[in-house]
């Protein structure tokens, strides 16, 4: 009963924390730390929510979640009477866990298929540009710049982008897209998109996905700033915004984002970084959240 109560309390704390976290503004000052905290919240909530149900279901075995599930699967007799409430909790917990896993796998498969089709399409319609080696160019008048993540990653721009941006601005945009590829931001976004599908009516899930999408763009902006002027990147983003940039295809990461002005303000008027003590505290909180639910699952009581 202690494990079930602890997991239920952890799930509730994660849900409340995620709700409060969507309104936080310190995240713009440390997007990578904020992304790590969002990931920890998601993992902790998923394992705690399913674990609370399963812990109650296997309570008659008096062995904890993992050992209780093993005993249940092996057909062992429980130490106490296993009634209807325990059976319903087992069904609900296994169903919820299966839904989360299946939705995540389905989202991953769908994304991989979309990227494979797009890579095949690029081999037919994209061309190389001698002055920007390694970048695929699409003959399209609209402004577009995006990356195709994966083992065979590509950075793609349109001919309209080449006409729209100066050389320095183009360098800034390419650095931004390369950051997405290098840091595999597609893998960061995948579970949040899957959670949104699993909970389509949840405002918290919707806001969490939107928040992480913006933080990923800010993290890429930070990495791009190592190779270009922040003002050049901000100017390029404004040009994309005023030109009505073409959204990135499904499964890709593009320069165009719905909250361009938040990124531009951050680039032009940088705020002080978080203090070292606060950074360490956030890292400790992320690690604690990520490990707490697995630890509770492993408890033998």
UniProtKB/TrEMBL annotation:
<keyword id="KW-0378">Hydrolase</keyword>
<keyword id="KW-0812">Transmembrane</keyword>
<protein>
    <submittedName>
        <fullName>M56 family metallopeptidase</fullName>
    </submittedName>
</protein>
<dbReference type="InterPro" id="IPR001915">
    <property type="entry name" value="Peptidase_M48"/>
</dbReference>
<feature type="transmembrane region" description="Helical">
    <location>
        <begin position="85"/>
        <end position="109"/>
    </location>
</feature>
<keyword id="KW-0479">Metal-binding</keyword>
<keyword id="KW-1133">Transmembrane helix</keyword>
<comment type="similarity">
    <text>Belongs to the peptidase M48 family.</text>
</comment>
<dbReference type="InterPro" id="IPR052173">
    <property type="entry name" value="Beta-lactam_resp_regulator"/>
</dbReference>
<feature type="transmembrane region" description="Helical">
    <location>
        <begin position="280"/>
        <end position="299"/>
    </location>
</feature>
<keyword id="KW-0482">Metalloprotease</keyword>
<feature type="domain" description="Peptidase M48">
    <location>
        <begin position="113"/>
        <end position="192"/>
    </location>
</feature>
<keyword id="KW-0472">Membrane</keyword>
<keyword id="KW-0645">Protease</keyword>
<keyword id="KW-0862">Zinc</keyword>
<dbReference type="Pfam" id="PF01435">
    <property type="entry name" value="Peptidase_M48"/>
</dbReference>
<feature type="transmembrane region" description="Helical">
    <location>
        <begin position="33"/>
        <end position="57"/>
    </location>
</feature>
């Amino acid at each position: 009963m202690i494990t079930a109560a602890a997991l239920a309390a952890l799930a509730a704390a994660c849900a409340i924390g995620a709700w409060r976290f969507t309104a936080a503004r310190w995240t713009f000052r440390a997007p990578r730390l904020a992304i790590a905290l969002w990931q920890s919240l998601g993992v902790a909530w998923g394992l705690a929510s399913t674990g609370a149900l399963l812990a109650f279901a296997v309570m008659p075995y008096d062995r904890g979640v993992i050992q209780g599930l093993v005993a249940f699967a092996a057909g062992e007799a429980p130490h106490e009477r296993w009634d209807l409430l325990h059976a319903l909790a087992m069904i609900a917990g296994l169903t919820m866990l299966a839904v989360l896993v299946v939705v995540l796998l389905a989202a991953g498969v769908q994304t991989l298929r979309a990227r494979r089709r797009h890579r095949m399409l690029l081999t037919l319609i994209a061309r190389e540009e001698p002055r920007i080696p390694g970048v695929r160019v699409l003959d399209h008048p609209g402004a577009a710049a995006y990356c195709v993540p994966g083992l065979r990653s590509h950075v793609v721009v349109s001919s309209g982008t080449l006409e729209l941006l100066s050389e320095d601005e183009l360098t800034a945009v390419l650095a931004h897209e390369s950051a997405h590829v290098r840091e595999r931001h597609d893998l960061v976004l995948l579970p949040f998109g899957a959670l949104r599908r699993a909970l389509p009516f949840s405002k918290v899930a919707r806001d969490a996905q939107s928040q992480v999408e913006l933080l990923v763009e800010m993290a890429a902006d930070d990495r791009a700033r190592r190779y270009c002027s922040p003002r050049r990147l901000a100017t390029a983003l404004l040009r994309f915004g005023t030109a009505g940039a073409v959204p990135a295809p499904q499964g890709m990461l593009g320069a165009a984002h719905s909250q361009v002005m938040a990124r531009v303000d951050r680039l032009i008027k940088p705020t002080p970084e978080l203090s070292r003590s606060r950074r360490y505290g956030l890292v400790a909180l992320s690690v604690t959240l990520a490990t707490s639910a697995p630890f509770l699952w492993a408890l033998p009581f």
